[in-house]
Write a structure and sequence with these properties.
Elements: H1 2-24, H2 28-47, H3 53-65, H4 67-77
Amino acid sequence: MDEFAKVHPEVEKVNREYAEKIRAENNVEKRNKLAAEANKEIEDVIGDSDLSVQEYNRLSMLIQQDANLQKQYHRALNK
């Protein structure tokens, strides 16, 4: 959970940055290119951690569904 708590804010930052760029872009090809860039950057951020992309995604989904895991995440985030 500690590793997830370290990497998740960085992933969310990339998501926010690219979401704004994608929303502002009218050209579908450019939007798709931006989305691919975002995915690559997110994979790189996760790859720099001890988590695989699959582990990160699994934890992200589980935390959204489990109140106890949410508490663990917030405790790890505030360390």
